[in-house]
Design a protein that fits this description.
Layout lengths: L9 H7 L21 E2 L5 E2 L6 E3 L3 E3 L28 H12 L13 H13 L10 H23 L11 E6 L4 E6 L2 E7 L2 E2 L8 E9 L9 E4 L7 E3 L10 E3 L3 E2 L2 H10 L5 E5 L20 H12 L13 H13 L10 H6 L3
Parallel strand pairs: 5-14, 8-12, 11-13
Antiparallel strand pairs: 1-2, 3-4, 5-6, 6-7, 9-10, 9-14, 10-11
């Protein structure tokens, strides 16, 4: 069993790779533009060609999109929703263009907020863990801009990426941050290379915790150029390439970590079975239903949430691996006793509440 890798301060990684450092999750490194003859207040151009095409190294942008800076909340000054008469305007065009670029909207960019636009917005909200109202509220605007910025940041990184030689040291560890959607290669405790990645959508999150590379293979198809399975004790999760490069930089997968194919080939040649992988980030509190009761022998992403919360409370010092082991159960009993609950050692609804869920 590979030991737990050390925790690397975020500042260490972001100083080494400032181009991928995001402030508060809203990094518009150049913004995103979508062509069409009309310009929003910040300079977002919208337009019309019917075909998708590649930017940089193949990242697909819809409807003739061109990268351009200046995308802000000022481009969406009002709440948009289905209404009679239909709401229309340049802000609706901007919304449609962003949704189309993210492959949520398949209709015409006509500036009219109709049922297809509302349906696409519901899909976007659902896959990003937002309340699925079908209306453009401030929270959805923020998430849309973050989404657009992450695609643009990933595309720029891909276009300017420079391959590096294989590290001479065998002390290689991987740190994946699901908030910034980056994978950092640590060599001898220092950042050596960094890649943009796609991670799991809120309803199917990438598991957090301490794992290791369990298997290396070439699967092809939707798994791209290379596959590296993680030692997650439930399900099958891995690092792999993609046949959808436009998804890199977003929350789009079923829990795996997607990489550009050139990047995953480089990484594949550096790591070996047993290489430690640490996945960090803020827990996505999206359940879709009431959390289940957890007891001895259970494995899963929700167990990781329990272990993370117990660690923050200072009650658990074991590995965050998604296994509900005896140490996790002991910490839960201690939490329950401290709060005058029956010390069952099971995570029931009252205990979930104590953990902040």
């Amino acid at each position: 069993m590979v030991g737990r890798p050390p925790a690397y301060p975020a500042v260490l990684i972001t100083r080494a790779f400032p181009a991928l450092a995001w402030a508060g999750g809203l990094a518009l490194a150049g913004g995103l533009a979508l062509a069409s003859g009309l310009a929003l207040a910040s300079g977002l151009a919208l337009a019309g060609g019917p075909a998708t095409r590649a930017v940089g190294d193949g990242t697909v942008l819809a409807q003739g999109a061109q990268p351009q800076s200046g995308l802000t909340t000022a481009d969406f000054p009002r709440r948009l929703a289905l209404a009679q008469p239909r709401m229309s305007g340049v802000d609706v065009r901007g919304l449609q263009a962003l949704l189309q670029n993210g492959e949520f909207y398949e209709g015409r960019i006509d500036g009219i907020f109709g049922p297809m636009t509302a349906k696409a917005l519901v899909l976007f909200q659902t896959t990003h863990g937002l309340l699925s109202t079908g209306a453009l509220d401030p929270g959805t605007v923020d998430e849309l801009l973050t989404f657009a910025g992450s695609i643009e940041t990933a595309a720029k990184t891909r276009a300017t990426w420079t391959p590096k030689p294989k590290p001479e040291s065998d002390d290689i560890r991987l740190v994946i941050d699901t908030d910034s959607r980056t994978l950092t290669v640590m060599v001898d405790g220092e950042p050596y290379q960094q890649y943009p990645v796609a991670v799991g959508r809120p309803s199917l999150p990438t598991p957090h915790g301490d794992f290791y590379i369990k298997e290396k293979a070439i699967w092809g198809g939707g798994f791209g150029a290379r596959w590296m399975r993680l030692s997650v004790p439930w399900g099958v999760y891995g690092l792999h390439g993609t046949n959808n490069p436009g998804s890199i930089g977003t929350r789009a997968s079923h829990g795996c970590v997607r990489m550009y194919n050139r990047h995953v080939i480089e990484l594949y040649n550096w790591v070996q079975v047993g290489t430690p992988v640490k996945i960090v980030g803020k827990p996505l509190r999206y359940w879709g239903e009431v959390p289940r009761v957890i007891g001895a022998g259970v494995c899963g992403t929700d167990v990781i949430r329990v272990q993370e919360a117990l660690t923050e409370l200072g009650l658990y010092k074991g590995p965050i691996n998604g296994r509900y082991n005896s140490d996790t159960q002991k910490a839960i009993r201690e939490l329950q006793k401290t709060n005058s609950l029956p010390a069952t050692g099971e995570v029931d609804q009252q205990t979930w509440h104590l953990l902040g869920y």
